[in-house]
Amino acid sequence: MVAAQAGVGRPRLAPRQREGASAREEILDAAAELFSVQGYTATSTRAIAESVGIRQASLYYHFSSKEQILAELLVGTVLPSLDVAAVLADSPQTAPARIWALAAFDVRLLCSGRWNLGALYLLPELRPANLAPFYTERQRLRAGYGALIDEGVTHGSFVVDDAATATDLVFGLVESVVLVRQDRGTLDPGRFAPAIADGCLRLLSCTGRRLAAAHRQGAALLADL
Amino acid sequence: MVAAQAGVGRPRLAPRQREGASAREEILDAAAELFSVQGYTATSTRAIAESVGIRQASLYYHFSSKEQILAELLVGTVLPSLDVAAVLADSPQTAPARIWALAAFDVRLLCSGRWNLGALYLLPELRPANLAPFYTERQRLRAGYGALIDEGVTHGSFVVDDAATATDLVFGLVESVVLVRQDRGTLDPGRFAPAIADGCLRLLSCTGRRLAAAHRQGAALLADL
To answer: Tag placement on chain A: N or C end, fewer CB within 10 Å?
Structure first.
């Protein structure tokens, strides 16, 4: 389908130098690095193409704009967790176990990858229409947490003053790994994922033996995913 | 001391149009707006000067560079909380009450001001030496939380697996208001400050009547500050 991918068409300017199974993925990898290191505004599509070793015109074969590349990178920080939330919505496990599994998965995702793409959420210059799908998917993920919190409240597993604020705190605690990762460069998901998943339950007043059970069941759920 | 402030020296290009008691503060206000709306890289010192209604040369009388303006804005998101942490370090109140007061103050600070300056923490292009004072002060604030957490653990008020990770979670929960504020535009500190301060205590396994007492004492401490 793609020239650089199939080895046909115009030759590359340089040998392949990027991670990724296709030209499209190499472009995403290069853009992730440049956006993360030198910033979004300061990065041109020409610089991304050069970093991949392809012509700028070839980049436009895959992506219509720099914004579209960013949108795809950002969506990638949310979609896998949204898939997990959809699977968990149908699970017979308790709400605490499912929140634990979702938060732990989400933290692992935000810790993974070579670049802290979650930090790009906060780029001040980003409000363009091209990013609407990302904002929508992120709100859907937040709603996935909210639904599990509501369910846990209904079943008496969680006690909160106000479910909307509790959802903000839980979602905020998960996303705070982006801030910590920005300080440290890398984070160990083996330490952070369970600590934050436990923390989410604590924020919902699920403690003691009930927290320990949810942690155990949530970890088993996560291993099955 | 400053021409524009004292009303002497070169006249302004335009009537005063910014918030702030001095030219310096007007420059900070203009830069905060431009950095928050169009981004840091895309904002020139010339644009900041024009937005204040002064000449670029006059801006350089107050600030040596765009980075220095950013550094001052960022330090302003941390220093007031650091002052509060210093006062609280000498308070005879319990560690839970003091963590509550510090977190609630910090959240109020991050919710305040016209622009979500905390979002600028995550600018990818920011690692310059000019920002070293900001990173230092922010680490000092984090250490202030850490000291209160250690004290609470020592006195049996908090139960944590690992104090360093617990500090990351507490500090992360406080700073997560920056992420929520970025989504919503504005946040009501009257709702978020106590909710997050309670949440910090929950993360430290301080719950029930002990949490209620710390909330009450912390709110009283905060009112005295």
So the answer is: N
Instruction: Sort out which chain A residues have CB atoms less than 8 A from B168's CB and list them.
Output: 180, 192, 195
**Worst-scoring range by mean pLDDT, B19-23, B185-189, B196-200?**
B19-23
Burial annotation A4-28 (CB, 10 A radius, 16+ → b, else e): bbeeeeeebeeeeebeeeebbebbb
Is this structure's pTM higher than 0.95? no
Task: Determine which helix (DSSP H) or strand (DSSP E) holds A48, and give its type and residue range.
Answer: helix A45-52
Instruction: Give B196's contacts in chain A (Cβ within 8 Å).
Output: 169
What span, in angstroms and rounded, lies between the C-alpha atoms of A164 and B192? 11
Q: Is residue A213 within 8 angstroms of chain B, CB to CB?
A: no
Residue B139 CB contacts under 8 Å (≥ 6 apart), including other chains: none
**Domains recognised in chain B with CATH numbers:** 2-63 (1.10.10.60), 75-224 (1.10.357.10)
Residue in A33, A36, A41 to test binding to B, most B beta-carbons within 10 Å = A41
Neighbours of B53 (CB within 10 A): 18
Query: Among the listed ranges A168-177, B39-48, B151-160, B215-224, which one has the minimum average pLDDT value?
Result: B39-48
Burial of B151 (0-12, 13-18, 19+ CB in 10 A): middle
Nearest CB to B35: which of A124, A168, A177?
A124
Contact A179 B177 (CB under 8 A): no
Let me know: does A178 contact B178? Beta carbons within 8 Å: no
